[in-house]
Amino acid sequence: MPDPIKWEDGSLYLLDQRRIPFEVEYLKCTNYQDVAEAIEKMIVRGAPAIGIAAAYGIVLASHGGLPMVKEAVSRLSKTRPTAVNLFWALEKMERAATDFHDATAKDPGLILKDHLLEVAVDIHEEERRIEKLIALHGQSIVPPNCQVLTHCNAGALATGGIGTALGVIRMAQKIGKAIKVYCDETRPLLQGARLSSWELWMDGLDVTVICDDMAAFLMKKGKVDLVIVGADRIASNGDTANKIGTYNLAVLCKYHGIPFYVAAPRSTIDCSIKDGEAVPIEERDPDEVRTVRGVKIFLEDIPAWNPAFDVTPGDLISGIITEAGILKAPYRESIETAMRIDVNFEDAHWADSYLKQGGSEDGGI
Ligand SMILES: CSC[C@H]1O[C@H](OP(=O)(O)O)[C@H](O)[C@@H]1O
């Protein structure tokens, strides 16, 4: 699986996910403006991946010192409003620059860029380790011979690691639970059809793409035992913002008595908001609805509505799988506890032993 985010020789290379699966092309970013545009155009997308890319964007601004770092933070924070990982990463990078700036006042020899690169790489590497823990915890809710439905792409392309929802699926498969996966195509930008099916197919999994409007009938036919999705922002009561169409699945799962799980790192939890009403929902260009891969499907003059996310109430969520374990309702309490847990990353190593089974040295992805 090509890395969606690569830092090489002082530049950031972003896999252009708009072209996947038919072309594998990287965009070279040499300044923070390039990174901001890449996030807005969804060349790089997915909550954790957006945060990681933005962190490297701050590194590209470091030659201008703290003033340019602050300029870059402001610009990057205006790219996409919903995924909280973006703001978490920018805050961490700005704090590192500010703290370091005080230090450089005393010792001008220190190089801000090297320090910020260290912090950005650490954010990236920690995300990879976190996803292995999410996968280890999450596989426990996947029964053998499970038929799993997933929505959008919460895989390696969305996170820079093994993925969150797809990381759970990969781990369950590697541990020996034969999995059949259905991917919702996920209109309008088709992240499920283009990205998730490609990731899973490349890993040799049994994957089938369905149109979003087929999910209910698939459930009625008894072909879905579990739904697992990613997240972009989780409120302190467990209400979860994720790709538009996720809420539909949660309601359908309630009706059909099917478990509905969210998989996400704790950096996706926003404890500053009490419920999902406060999540800023990105509205994108109506032309994304008006076209399919550039081909118009209805008249220009007819308005289109294009919210990129919806919010699933916590009471429709069976569990939230994080690196600190699987959180259950009441989420206000379980989230409060989870945020205080000091996670032992040692376990991530034995995740590798599973992921490497039949896979390459880099943990099977
Ligand atoms: C692992 S988070 C992935 C999350 O992000 C996606 O949104 P987008 O493709 O618009 O960045 C979608 O909500 C996924 O669940």
How large is the share of residues in beta strands? 15-25%
Strand order of the largest sheet: 6-5-4-7-10-15-16
Which kinds of small molecule does this entry bind, naming each only once? Answer: ligand LNRAV4D5
Q: Give the total of beta strands.
A: 16
- Relevant CATH superfamily of the largest domain: Translation initiation factor eif-2b, domain 2
Query: What is the general shape?
Result: globular
CATH C-level class of the largest domain is Alpha Beta
Name the average pLDDT.
94
What is the name of the CATH architecture of the largest domain? 3-Layer(aba) Sandwich
The largest sheet, given as strand count, sense and whether it forms a barrel, is: 7 strands, mixed
Q: Which regions contain 5 or more consecutive residues with pLDDT less than 50?
A: 359-365
Rg, Å, rounded: 20 Å
Counting helices, strands and paired strands, the structural category is alpha/beta
